[in-house]
Specification:
It is a single chain. This protein is 33% helix and 25% strand. It is built from 14 helices and 23 strands. It has a ten-stranded mixed beta sheet with strand order 8-7-9-6-12-13-14-15-16-17, with helices on both faces.
Length: 471
């Protein structure tokens, strides 16, 4: 059987191509702008792909065509699929039928922390000897890949709330057959997909409703919507929290005596009022304590050995683009992070402070996602970014999508930060950001770059400019 993936170069589609190849299928694909690391991964897997969308890519006709969620009507290859009445489906449906059905699926959902928690949980189960399959929206450093297929009963998957395909506008996570489900938190996001908070909330409510009575819901207790949704679960609920106690009587996972340091974090784990012992992780930040607790709770619900879970936590490395150190030049450290929502920006800045102590923190933020560029988030961004010592705001990614009432005003945001005492510039061009920051950076500074896109290769440009300035 041959699968053909239209839009194969996306992270999720490329990982699906690898899973299908690992199962023994012939896999081909097509996309535009196929660059490393995805082009490298596809080449290493021996997967043939075309670098343009063309009806000729469908010759001979594949047995099944997977249409990526970035592909829309008007794409010449998709139009040929429809004209020729060829069989097609979505990536999420393919994942469900080819890999999830019949397994113990551990699905991790939530506005923040999905990728990290999925990566932690996969490694914890590996350390506990359960040899899980997994599909993650990022590269887990312990494995060096974003997917794996084994013969294990267990499959760990990142359960994304983004839409499935042009013909299926429901979230991908509705397809994933959760048995042990994690909802890390719920806070309005993806304004390009969801018209309002009610619609966004409904996506998670239906996900919770998919968990069988014999399963488990692990829920982050510190966001109100997540707490309210958990009350509707027909499956047993295990709550996770650092600050807010569970007032509904569910078994609760808590972290006590948290200690943050430059090499990581340690804390006592308490479950249902009973101490489970002290654990260590190289991760930093209160949000990562919550992610670790959620992974411990889900691993325990799946029956994993506790000592193996603890060892996995101690040896967990990281996820690429999650507080990833890109390099250090002349004593200046450059960090890349995926943060793009005000809450994620605030928590990432706080975690960077915990990791690097009193060093000066320069925050460079690109408002790139549809949600990130909304006027309604301008004040929350001001509050979050004010915790840095120096801020640079990049230009809006697609300013034509917004008008004066709906879009963020970066100049006004920069002005409000300056008035609050935080030196801030709005610099739309990447090269001009580099030319501004590199000369003023001094030994000991930490440059935290936050964007959910490539940001014009700013990390490498900064490191190169820092090296030139020191020559």
């Amino acid at each position: 059987m041959r699968y053909h993936l239209i839009g194969i170069a996306g992270t999720a589609m490329g990982s699906l191509a690898g899973l299908l190849r690992a199962k023994g299928y012939e896999v081909t694909g097509s996309d535009q702008g196929v660059y490393p690391p995805m082009s490298t991964q596809l080449d290493e897997l021996g997967i043939r792909y075309a670098k343009t969308f063309d009806p000729a890519n469908l010759e001979p006709a594949p047995d099944m065509i997977v249409v990526g969620n970035a592909i829309s009507r008007g794409n010449p290859e998709l139009e040929a699929v429809l004209d020729r009445r060829l069989p097609y489906t979505s990536a999420a449906h393919t994942i469900k039928e080819e890999f999830l059905r019949g397994r113990h699926v551990l699905a991790v959902a939530g506005t923040h922390g999905k990728t990290t928690t999925t990566s932690i949980l996969s490694w914890l189960l590996e350390s506990a000897g359960l040899n899980p399959s997994f599909l993650i929206g990022g590269v887990a450093e312990n494995f060096g890949v974003s997917f794996r297929l084994t013969d294990s009963e267990y499959f760990v998957i990142e359960a994304d709330e983004y839409d499935t395909a042009y013909f299926d506008k429901g979230p991908k996570m509705w397809h994933y057959l959760p048995h042990t489900a994690v909802v890390t938190n719920v806070e309005f996001d993806h304004a390009d997909i969801y018209r309002d908070e009610t619609a966004y909330r409904f996506a998670f409510a239906r996900f919770v409703n998919l968990i069988p009575r014999t399963g488990t819901l692990v829920v982050g207790w510190e966001t109100q919507i997540a707490r309210e949704l958990s009350a509707k679960s027909l499956a047993p609920v295990e709550s996770v929290g650092v600050e807010a106690p569970d007032a509904q009587g569910n078994p609760c996972w808590r972290a006590d005596r948290i200690e943050y340091g430059p090499r990581g974090t340690s804390f006592d784990v308490v479950h249902d009022g009973k101490p489970r012992g002290r654990v260590e992780t190289p991760l930093v930040g209160a949000f990562n304590v919550r992610n670790c607790l959620a992974a411990l709770a889900a691993g325990t619900a799946a029956g994993a050995d506790w000592s193996g879970l603890v060892e996995g936590l101690r040896t967990f490395e990281s996820v690429r683009r999650r507080m990833e150190v890109k390099g250090e030049v002349r004593g200046v450290t450059v960090i890349d992070d995926f943060a793009h929502h005000p809450t994620a920006v605030r928590e990432t800045i706080a975690a960077t402070r915990q990791r690097f102590g009193g060093r000066r923190l320069i925050a460079i933020f690109e408002p790139r996602s549809y949600t990130a560029q909304l006027r309604r988030f301008q004040e929350p961004y001001r509050e979050a970014l004010a915790n840095a010592d120096r801020v640079v705001l990049a230009g809006l990614f697609h300013p034509e999508r917004y008008d004066a009432d709906t879009g963020m005003d970066p100049d006004a945001l920069a002005d409000s930060l300056r008035k609050g005492g935080t030196p801030t510039d709005h610099i739309p061009e990447v090269d001009r950001i580099v030319a501004t920051i590199a000369p003023e950076a001094e030994a000991g500074d930490v440059i935290l770059v936050m964007s959910n896109g490539g940001f014009g290769g700013i990390h490498e440009k900064l490191l190169a400019a820092l090296a030139r300035n020191g020559a």
